[in-house]
Amino acid sequence: MIFFIKLFLAHLIGDFMLQPTKWVIHKEANKAGSKYLYLHIFLHFLITMIVLWDFSMWKIALIIMVSHLVIDVAKLYTTPFFKNKSIPFFIDQLLHILVLYCCAFYENLYENTITVFENLDWALVTAVVFVSFPAAILMGKLLEAMSNQIPTDHKSLPNAGKYIGILERLFVLIFIVLGRWEAIGLLIAAKSVFRFNDLKESNNRKLTEYILIGTLVSFGLAILAGIAYTSISL
Question: 149: domain range?
């Protein structure tokens, strides 16, 4: 695992800390013809060797470098086909991490992968999945009749409320798993402070009641998921 962590650290340094915006823009404009693409790839090789500090691992660093080049070039040429530009970015990062994983555990890749899945806390995974989009959809159904009575605020970011709800439920779940129930109160207080000005300026009782009910339902679902998980884990 330490070997994988070292490879991942080298990836973070090379892909984020030592890749200026100027390089990214030049790569997007010139693609495979960009000099910064190859400088970026060489830096990955160099950083990987420095982090590993073992010259005998040069083949691993070379595999990572070549795979990084292939993945980056594929990303540069396929990105224009995506409406949402963040999708190719996350696919790119996922493929890089997959390569690092294969390089770190190449000696017993299959056995290690099976062990990882066998040791997963499936109850926790289920709880995390539930408080994300399933809970958001459930809330939408529960509050549908009320939401139709609330005027749409065109100044809001698209789906901002949904993602805020997902994040707050994830935080609540984490706090419960860690046994820090008092932190949930701090989270509610923080949200109330941020919402106070919006509710004060709108002077809309229906909106205030809708937000209050939505917040309580959101926290309630996360708390139920947390209690269910801790009960199963006992």
Answer: 122-233
Q: Using CA atoms, how far apart are residues 10 and 52, in angstroms rounded to an integer?
A: 9
Indicate whether 145 and 229 sit together in one domain.
yes
Local structure of 234: helix, strand or coil: coil
Q: Quick one: pLDDT band at residue 214, thresholds 50, 70, 90?
A: confident
Q: Quick one: pLDDT at residue 189?
A: 84
pTM over 0.85: no
For the chain, first and last CA: distance in Å?
28
108 and 139, same domain (yes or no): no
Which string of DSSP letters, residue by residue, matches 19-55?
--HHHHHHHHHHGGG-HHHHHHHHHHHHHHHHHHT-G
Distance, CA of 231 to chain centre: 27
In this structure, the answer to whether residues 48 and 148 fall within a common structural domain is no
